[in-house]
Every structure is written in C-alpha cells, then in structure tokens.
Amino acid sequence: MGSPEMVAVTFVGADGSARQCSGTAGESLMRAAVRTGIREILAECGGIAACATCHCYVEPPWDQRLDPRSDVEEAMLEAALDPTEFSRLSCQITLSPALDGLVVRLPADQI
C-alpha cells in the first residue's frame, strides 16, 4: 500500500506572514493546522463544530472547491469574530488532492 497523499496548504497570518504545511488527504484542515503548530487555530472543541475557534478565511477561488457550509457551520460562524462570505470552520474542511495548494487567511483573534 502506498503512502497517503499529502495536500499542501498555505496559512496567511493577520500580519501577512505565510506559513506552509501539509496535511494528509482525508484529514481536516483544523487537524493539519494543530498538528503543524498553527497557533491561531485554537480548535477548543476538537473538531465537532461546537465552537468557532478554528475560524479561517478561504481565499478565492479555493472557496469554490469546497462543499457548501452546513447549517451547523453557518450557526457557529455567527459566533466567530469578523466573519465574511469566505469564512469557514477549518474543522469542516476535509483535505483532498483537489485542495492541494489551498490558501487560507487566519483571523487576528479567535475569541
């Protein structure tokens, strides 16, 4: 069996600094961020969409490659600081080969 496919992701901080990491296809963006030390992704609920502390902004045109937000995600984003049309909970984004090169922006604050 081959190794899992890796998906490259660039996280852009509120200060404009870019950090690259990779996640495994099938892993949530939130898990990849936490595992690689992206401190702006707090992930207090552990990835069950029960908080908004993994809020991020998906850069266009990447936002068009994602599944639509669920009702639960929409409700949680109402609790996020400064949500926009590009806001997503990173726990609700599953990495896939189609997302290789994904760029997301991080908010200045989560709570």
What would your notes on this structure say?
Strands 2-1-5-3-4 form a 5-stranded mixed β-sheet. It is globular, with a radius of gyration of 13 Å. 13% of the residues lie in helices and 23% in strands. The protein is built from 2 helices and 5 strands. With 111 residues, the protein is an alpha+beta fold. Strand 1 (6-12) and strand 2 (18-24) form a beta hairpin. The longest helix has 7 residues, at 29-35. This is 2Fe-2S ferredoxin. It comes from Streptomyces demainii. Belongs to the adrenodoxin/putidaredoxin family. Residues 7-110 form the 2Fe-2S ferredoxin-type domain.
Q: Topology of this protein?
A:
Elements: E1 6-12, E2 18-24, H1 29-35, E3 55-58, H2 71-77, E4 87-89, E5 102-105
Structure described in brief:
This protein is α+β, with helices and mostly antiparallel strands and 111 residues long. The chain contains 2 helices and 5 strands. It comes from Streptomyces demainii.
Mean pLDDT reading = 95
In the predicted model, the low-confidence regions spanning at least 5 consecutive residues are none
State the end-to-end CA separation: 42 Å
Strand content: 15-25%
Strand order of the largest sheet: 2-1-5-3-4
Number of strands: 5
SS-derived structural category? alpha+beta
The largest sheet is: 5 strands, mixed
Inertia-based shape? globular
Along the chain, the helix and strand elements come as: EEHEHEE
**Helix run count:** 2
Proportion of helical residues = 10-25%
Question: What is the gyration radius calculated from CA atoms?
Answer: 13 Å
Pfam families: Fer2 (PF00111)
Keywords: 2Fe-2S, Iron, Iron-sulfur, Metal-binding
InterPro entries: 2Fe-2S_ferredoxin-like_sf (IPR036010), 2Fe-2S_ferredoxin-type (IPR001041), Adrenodoxin-like (IPR001055), Beta-grasp_dom_sf (IPR012675)
Family: Belongs to the adrenodoxin/putidaredoxin family.
